[in-house]
Amino acid sequence: MLSNPFIQAALWCALVSLLAWAISLAKHDASVADVFWPWMSVGSAAIYLLSALSPSPIAWVTLAGITVAALRLSVMVISRIALGGEDRRYTEIRSSWGRGFGLKSLPGIFMLQGAMGFVTAVPLAVVMARPDAFGFVDVLMMGLWLVGFVIQTAADRQLAKFTRADDGTGVLRTGLWRYSRHPNYFGELCMAWSVFGLALVGDGGWTLFAPLLLTWSILSFTGVTRMEREMPSRRPEYAGYASVTSALFPWPPRCQKS
User: Fold this and answer.
1) Do the Cβ atoms of 132 and 198 come closer than 8 Å?
2) Chain Cα centroid distance, residue 1
3) CA dihedral of 10, 12, 14, 18, whole degrees rounded to 10
4) Average pLDDT value for residue range 65-80
5) Residue 18, phi-psi category: left (phi > 0), alpha (psi -120 to 50), beta (remainder)
6) Digit-coded pLDDT (tens) for 172-182
7) pTM score > 0.85 for this model?
8) What 3-state class would DSSP assign to 32?
9) What are the backbone angles phi and psi of residue 22, rounded to the nearest 5°?
10) pLDDT of 102 over the 80 cut
11) What are phi and psi of 222, to 5 degrees?
């Protein structure tokens, strides 16, 4: 039973979640969840690769790409925590959950994240097992992945630079943020859907639930909706910015009506 790669990947995600939770208790900072999040996919991909009969260069290139992306994201989050402490999202959850947050956060944040990490990494099981050579669609999907990575990296850097100079009430309107209110999430979704595209070529259409789950989470659960709900109360100019700027897909700003 334990030789099944899906069970191994699920156990890996559970162990990563437990480790992140333990560190969050020691640091009194639930933001560490974001440090460990991308490594669930990397570890799962490595497990699927090791169980594959004859993995192709597609598998190795994909593993290398998601490893680089995970390293970048983890370093960014660690730097953000060092400068600003616990992320506002987790601080608000900590406040709303009240006493016993530490115990509540194990199933409510960390194990839930582990489950999502396992599910969203399932397309990698197909990609890692593909024995075929690069095709035209593969090149397109890897190009989309690279575009997403560049967009997410640039957006995160622009936001970090803005945050260092902001007093907590301003609105970032330059760079990629002029064309999208959440370009970092757009980049992440480009990467996720490109991995699904690689799986689709390998008859992995059945893994469609994975990018759909991540898209739903970003749009309606952990990302866009949550941020948009509380942003106007902290940043007075945000409503005007939102009225002319695309929520996700980068697009030229609309002309504001007089």
Assistant:
1) no
2) 30
3) 180
4) 96
5) alpha
6) 999 999 999 99
7) yes
8) helix
9) -60, -45
10) yes
11) -100, -15
